[in-house]
Amino acid sequence: MSLLPEDIEQYVAAHTTAAPDFLDELERETKLKVLMPQMISGSIQGSTLAMFVHMMQPKSILEVGTFTGYSAIWMAQALADNGVITTVDINEELEDMVRNYIAKSQQAHKIRYVIGNALDVIPTLESTFDLVFLDADKVNYQAYYDMVFPKVRKGGFIIADNVLWGGKVAKEEKLKPNGEAIRRFNEYVHNDPRVENVLLPVRDGLMIARKL
To answer: Between β-strands 195-200 and 111-115, what pairing exists: parallel, antiparallel or unpaired?
Structure first.
């Protein structure tokens, strides 16, 4: 999933550090075996998230929406050895696959994988987070944002995925519930006086908000 022309996408991929072999394997297995495989972040976005982690040097990350573990592993690889990423997902059917690839990544000591509804799990988390990555059901993006906000340290970051929704959010047309939720979320973050934000057209769009 990308808004870039295919030749530009290929050029970008050719000039970006490649994913480790086991992450390429995870991407292939996701596309072969999992419903809606386009939900996986992909190597360009994965390496972008990892680069953010290298630059931010967070100690504690929260990911809302694990899917098959691809983005969590990318971020964990860039995380310091004493850092922790808590990743939450409601789909227990993918647990074996996720845990298998977490083990292959040798990042298990950095990854806390929680199965459950994020709306129930987030209030139980006592950590303060340096970085939050939202990539779960879109209709609840604003709810997740509001729930995690008090748990993000001042100067910390919230990054939300799929905020361009295939480019549809920029069109003057009524969207289906997920698209309308993304459109409302973008407006909400952009008008939130508690943050400064930038929307990056990486893959399907990343909204980056820094807590003031």
So the answer is: unpaired
